Amino acid sequence: MDDELYLETYRNQNENYDESIIRQLLAQINLKLLKNNAFTLFTVSNFLSSLGFFVPYNFAHDLAKDADVIESHRKFVLMGIGFSTCISHIIIDESSDIIQCNINYSWHIYIVAPFSGSDILYHVSYASFFGFFSGGYIGLTSIITVDLVGLNKLSNGMGIILLFQGIATAIGTPVVGK
How many other CB atoms are found less than 10 A from the CB of residue 133? Predict the structure, then answer.
């Protein structure tokens, strides 16, 4: 008898708990922000950008391998992306009010990747170029969000953007595959 009472109590507590989590999530996600057309467009562009954002990081080594770059030099391709991303965080974020940076330039550099041959300098160059401009993409997301939704709704706006970026990142690289 006590076991049945315990199981029934446990079942009721879990049902209420699950329901309250869903209610809390819906209450915390301010979907009214998506009525702002500029914010919705920015969220969609972040989703689409995040679909392919990590692909170069995941496959730069494989591209260098396919181009017959010496094995001990392949690590420099990914290192070039990382180092230039760090540098660009400093430069682009500090000068974001002065210089208009366009993230689209970073994707176009990968058009020359197949023509880089086995020369490590070319591979590191295009990887660094990509890394430099992708650093601006990361750093300026919160600044643009403040411009679109205001400082008082920054946490809600970033929450929605990061939700869509997370979904896109989770499905992006596996969809591209190897």
Answer: 22
Q: Quote the CA–CA distance of 68 and 65 in Å, as a whole number.
A: 5
Q: 11-24, pLDDT tens digit by residue?
A: 555 555 556 667 77
Q: What is the CA radius of gyration of the chain?
A: 22
For the chain, what are the domain ranges?
A: 1-30, 36-176
The whole-number average pLDDT for the span 63-91 is: 80
pTM above 0.85, yes or no: no
C-alpha torsion angle, residues 17, 19, 22, 26 (rounded to 10): -120
Q: How far is CA 33 from each of CA 22, 45, 91, 138, 153, rounded to the nearest angstrom?
A: 19, 15, 31, 21, 9
Instruction: With H, G, I as helix, E, B as strand and everything else as coil, classify residue 69.
Output: coil
Q: Which value, to the nearest 10 degrees, does the dihedral of the CA atoms of residues 45, 50, 53, 59 take?
A: -140
Residues 145, 136 contacting (CB under 8 angstroms):
no
Would you tell me how many other CB atoms lie within 10 Å of the CB of residue 44?
12
Distance of CA 42 to the CA centre of its chain: 13
Per-residue pLDDT tens digits for 88-108:
777 776 666 555 555 445 445
Backbone torsions φ then ψ of 53, nearest 5 degrees: -65, -45
